[in-house]
Amino acid sequence: MSLYGTDLLALLPELIIVVTACLVIALDPITPASRRDLLAWLSLGSLALCLGLTMGQIGVLNIRVSAFSDLVVVDAYARFWKVLLYGVTGLTIILSLPYLKAERIHLGEYYAFILLSLSGMMVMVSGADLLTIYLGTELMSLSLYVMTGLNRSNPCSREAAAKYFVLGAFSSGILLYGISLLYGMAGSTKLASIAATIGSHGANDPLLLIAVILVAVGFSFKLAAVPFHMWTPDVYEGAPTSVTAFMAVAAKAASFAAFMRVFVEGLGGLKADWSLLFLLIALATLVFGNLVAIVQTNIKRMLAYSSIAHAGYALIGFVAAGRATGGTPGLASVMIYLALYAFMTLGAFAVIGMLRKGGIEGEEIEDFTGLAKRQPLAAFLMLLFMASLAGIPPTAGFIGKFYVFMAAVESGLAWLAAIALIFAAVSAYYYMRVVMVMYMREPDPSSVAPRLVTSPALSFVLAFAVAGVILFGLFPDSLVSFALQSVLTLK
Amino acid sequence: MHSGGIPWLTLFLLIPLAGAAAMYFVTESTARWIALAATLADLFVALPLWWLFDPQTSQMQFTEHVAWITAPPIYYSLGLDGISLPLVLMTAGIMPLCVLASWTSITTRVQSFMAMLLIMETAMIGVFVALDFVLFYVFWEAMLIPMYLLIGVWGGPNRLYAAIKFFLYTLAGSVLLLVAIFALYFYGGHTFDILALSQGTYPASLQMWLFLAFFAAFAVKIPMFPFHTWLPDAHVEAPTAGSVILASILLKMGTYGFLRFSLPMLPDASHAFTPMMVGLSIVAIIYGAYMALAQVDLKKLIAYSSVSHMGFVTLGIFVLNQQGIEGAVLQMVNHGITTGALFLCVGMIYERTHSRLIADNVGLASPMPQYATLLMIFALSSLGLPGTNSFVGEFLVLIGTFLWSKVATAFASLGIILAAVYILWMVQRVVFGIPLPHQLSKLKDLNKRELATLAPLGLLVFWIGLFPNPLVSKMHQSVNNVIASMARTKVAPTAQPSAREAAPLLAGSTEPLKTEEISR
Fold first, then answer.
1. Whether B435 contacts B364, CB under 8 Å
2. How confident is the model at residue A363 (pLDDT cuts 50, 70, 90)?
3. Among the partner residues B71, B175, B510, nearest to A484 by beta-carbon distance
4. Which end is more exposed in chain A, N or C (fewer Cβ atoms within 10 Å of the end residue's Cβ)?
5. Where do the structural domains in chain A lie, given as residue ranges?
6. Which of B72, B153, B167 sits opposite A439 (nearest CB)?
7. CA B69, A335, A425, A432: dihedral to nearest 10 degrees?
8. Nearest to B443 by CA among B435, B455, B451
9. Among A365, A403, A410, A441, which would you mutate to test the B interface (most chain B Cβ atoms within 10 Å of its Cβ)?
10. Chain A: nearest CA to B490, how far in angstroms?
11. How far apart are alpha carbons B376 and B331 in whole angstroms?
12. pTM to 2 decimals?
């Protein structure tokens, strides 16, 4: 196998990110601590470059470029996710600037790891081979383990990293076992070959079903779907908030992207089996996530359970895709959902990270008490993010739920949509509790009132997030057509 | 369907929003004036519609139709007919009064309060004028958060409980509406157009499910008997303006929903559920009245009287004849005027004595003669005295009910008798009792602002009571249209070929059942 220029060209964005990550590591020791911002700007520059390259590729939507003997593909589907991932990573880096300084953990490696994690995600969304996807997953996860434990002086952070690592490694093992079974049957780890084998052998082999279940379990860990969600609350709570935001949005999006490609392109012949499996997982996920979120007092933990619930909603779109004949609306609805989820979640975490109680992060829901009186604009933005997470129009969250549930009803799952929507109403209780403490509670005058510490970087992230929440809530057309076009290359 | 010229309805929606946006930049005292100006401007946009409206047609008027979302096709589609016109005018008329009623009673975060009122106005008008089901749903849900804040931030001592109860009840009720909207979309030829969907035929079994989903949303909002428990809490805790908005406008959205969606789209189910709906209405009429009898808090008394009065509205709608439905629409307006006015009266006395208990507000006739007179007028209107607006509405509803069932009419009439009991008993204590000596110093009669708030409603009570025809004739064609659309589907019964019965919702097919082209 020889390397061709075209192969490398297809992977150019990934290469740029990896090279920049190495550059950041190399430059870190010779950069004075006061000028570490430069490393962040360097990382942002590489993201902008990649964004330009990927957007340039969008012009040729229908072309599906395979590289390295079909190990990776560059298609419209991958491009959609990459654009989303660049945006999320860029906003996370900007948000990290004030956050890491406030937490006194402004380390150069952070930017290297975030870029390495991104490159793993990019390989995941472009992978057309189970092992390629596995490698991408591991690169993403290993970087995230380190970032979770970045706040070395905080025992919670260390504990979270250890838990995340152990459970993550465990789930990778299960995924790998499933992959090995599939390899044993198809003689290849390429998605196309696996699909061909299923097509010729039929779907009734019990070993095949075991393999599908193992792969599903492996991915469910990454998606934080019930009953494989146990790591999520502790990790989200313990990790630095900027990392939590990155995990909740980017890691989830990349995992969904790879997961959908594997199950549609590789295991599409077993739709009937896995759509039932994921129907049960989706139902359990959104019921459990929403119910447990109600009793949380720590807002990061609450958003962890809420992110579990949101994975459940997105899975409904995927289940719908597995049942309908075409499946396009269902898959597109997942893409729309996760893209919109990115805006509101990043916005909410940006507010949480910079809400400071005398230098310490205000993580309890109670810390938001009376915020509307002290900082009306900040409270109003948080109100919008919470309303959007609850799916109340005219915010982006409503549009996301709209497309997911429409796909569900179209594929004959009206009852599932009804249950999910009732739990969306349940979720409104805990989102509105945040609004309640902000607007309707009087702060205790004796305690230190937490304030949102503003900075240009934070303002930029918040402006971006709120623009997404409002504009896509009112005018979702561009995003919807982008998703609908992109999903067509998934076959 | 397109009307050139002035986009009345868009103006209508945008003026309050512009006012709300302006609140960010102004001081407290300016905020009050801007809110008043915005609501009055909206009223002046609304008034010409009364004369421009053509009562000879059941067609939607002042329509606007602009593409909003392409996939699926969702339109920014607005229009008015004889059913929505009175409700829209009432909304535009009530809102300036709400601003006036909050002039001195709201002292904290005035800008935010006024912004919430104005956002509410846009959303409420939007609900009445939307002709696209998704657009309707967006307006319908957009009201939740401003109302939640109105109750929760500016409300009484137990406001947190009342606010979240209101929020969760209404949200839980309306989520199923969204599923029903999707189901209609896939069965009704892939459109969200309310008028096109109203002409579709749907399998009877599907209609039953959809009716129940609609019922969950609308019955909570009205609220009908078993779903009414949020209303007394919300009314008691809400600030005066919040109570007025709730009683006058929000409750009407549920009944409007039944008229606009359930009846024309699901005629077979509406017929099938008539006994249940009439039964629940009569229970609401009698139960609400009994509960009102037992109340010691004025706001709670009026809240329960609302449950009773809204029972008349749902009764009128579901006897499914012209008298009943016209009476129901008229009664929606009447209840908005009368109950809104009563809540304003309670708010005014609360500002003076800081109590809403009947026992603390007795014998107002001698210290506050103007107030007592107006309260008396609205109270008599509430019990349906001939010559006042409610008499006409209730009378029409009862005629309609009589045509449907004499027994039902007898039971419903009990509600009027009970209304006389609880209203007159309340009036006897509040107006004609002996004033408490320690309260006397606080009992100043109405000032000019308060008089300006109540007087227009007092005039409307008599105008509708004595000359109902201008209003009723405007709704005539549209009500006929609703009844005709129900009859039309009765002629073409649901015994469709079995292929139609194979519901795609259950089978997973994406083919629409009804592919017949519906021309706009």
1. yes
2. confident
3. B71
4. N
5. 1-173+228-257, 267-491
6. B153
7. -90
8. B435
9. A410
10. 27
11. 19
12. 0.92
SS3 at position A361: strand
Q: Band the pLDDT of A451: cuts 50, 70, 90.
A: confident
The residue type at B456: P
Distance CA A68, CA A4 (A): 8
The domain segmentation of chain B, as residue ranges, is 8-483
Q: How far apart are CA B200 and CA B209, in angstroms?
A: 16
Please, are residues B210 and B180 in contact by the beta-carbon 8 Å criterion? yes
- Give the contacts of A192 (CB within 8 A, at least 6 positions apart): A70, A128, A265, A266
pLDDT(B467) > 70: yes
Q: Is the pLDDT of residue A3 over 70?
A: no
pLDDT in tens, A73-130: 888 899 999 999 999 999 999 999 999 888 888 888 899 999 999 999 999 999 999 9
Contact status, residue A479 vs residue A340, Cβ threshold 8 Å: yes
Distances, alpha carbon B134 to alpha carbons B115, B141, B512, in Å: 24, 11, 19
- The two three-digit tokens of residue A297, written as one number: 């007092």
The verdict on a CB contact (< 8 Å) between A383 and B186 is no
Which of A97-101, A216-220, B65-69, B497-501 is the least confident region?
B497-501
Taking residues A153-171, what's their average pLDDT? Answer: 91
The conformation of residue B502, written as its DSSP 8-state character, comes to S
Q: What chain A residue is nearest to B182 in terms of C-alpha separation?
A: A406
Residue A324 has pLDDT above 80, yes or no: no
* ipTM attached to this prediction: 0.93
Residues 55-114 of B with CB under 8 A from A: 69-72, 109, 112
Q: How far apart are CA A199 and CA A208, in angstroms?
A: 12
Interior angle at CA B247, CA B242 and CA B250, nearest 5: 85
